[in-house]
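Researcher: Before we compare anything, I want clean individual predictions. No alignment, no superposition, just each chain on its own. First chain goes here; please echo the sequence and then give the structure tokens.
Model: Echoing the first chain and its structure:
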Amino acid sequence: MKKIREVIVVEGRYDKNTLRQTVDAAVFPVDGFAVFNDREKLALLRRLARERGLILLTDSDGAGFVIRNYLKGALPKEQVKHAYIPDQYGKERRKRRPGKEGKLGVEGMRPEILLAALERAGATFEGEDAPTAPGGGLTKADLFELGLSGGPDSAEKRRALLARLELPEHLSASAMLETLNLLYGREELLTLLQDGGPEASK
């Protein structure tokens, strides 16, 4: 499975599931039109764009282009690449009927089509021996050990951490873990968490 450096931005979780079976990459669903009113999510996307670069991969129907055009105007263009899927007509297996325009979305695309779209967009494919984040990433076991999951006040601790790191407060434990690993190396994270946040390490 090819590893991609950029964060791939998609419309929803089913698109994310399909992509995660196709490439080794961080995939960020914006929850469709909900992103229009979510300043925190937009701020996080800008941050990810700075740190890793983004690839926008939305459906090929009108709604997909409305979302793409909104993000195109809201994000720094030099940090964003655009991947496009072809117009293919049909119905995704989980749906009872086709979408409004009858086109398949990202979730309905075959792996080779998605891979070709990402290649055309100029995705950065990393070698299997490419260096990973220093010391590897933070794990679920680390979150538990640090009291950020599995404890009576874990949710409160997560909220406080997210506020300190200026990340959206509604991230679940899993989404928080994925986001932290995108933005920080393991040792840097452990230092931030043990010292009480970024301001404490200055």
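Researcher: Okay. Second chain, same rules.
Model: Second chain and its structure:
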Amino acid sequence: MALRKPATLGDTQVMASTIDLATLSLELASLEASARRGAARTLGAVPEAVPLLCDRLAVESALSVRSAIVTSLIRLKSERVVEGLLPFLRSEDTGLRNAVIEALQEMPSEVEPFVAELLADADSDVRIFAVNIVSLLPHPSTPLWLTQVVAEDEHVNVCAAAVEGLAEIGTEHAIPALEALPGRFPDVPFIAFAVSAVIRRIRGL
């Protein structure tokens, strides 16, 4: 009869972690919102739970549970979390989309590798949401990203969102791109007005 290898402390910890994750996974799918909410909060300390939390976020209807999931994902912030949240920018659920935008704004370093791709997305709505994220992202490159949008994006609403962002954080570097913008959209009068206001604010006038 083969002898059974004694469990080491490390083996016990791994087993306990596996059991906890399995149990919490079941609780996250409970019919009781309180159980789902409790599981979501606990999983905020388990990095391996990121896919589980994102999958649940996609179907969760209770706002309190959704909030707990988003809070836990912010606690676990990583590029993996960002990858899990970005698909929600295409959601038709405005509340969910806004919650995700706010969550991503809490992860400047983790979001940075995805900014270029987001600002080049084929969907102008996604680009607008990306600008909304970037505008409040506490990152030193934020003014440069918004200036690039103003200089290059072909959709007036995307550019308008970037102009709005530059109203708060724009620098002298943005002025040439801003001054050129009304000429790119001559049939949209509000662009010239918005640009003029932003340039005055940047110059302290």
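Researcher: What stands out in the second chain?
Model: Confidence is low (pLDDT under 50) at residues 1-19. Additionally, The CA atoms of residues 118 and 130 lie 6 Å apart.
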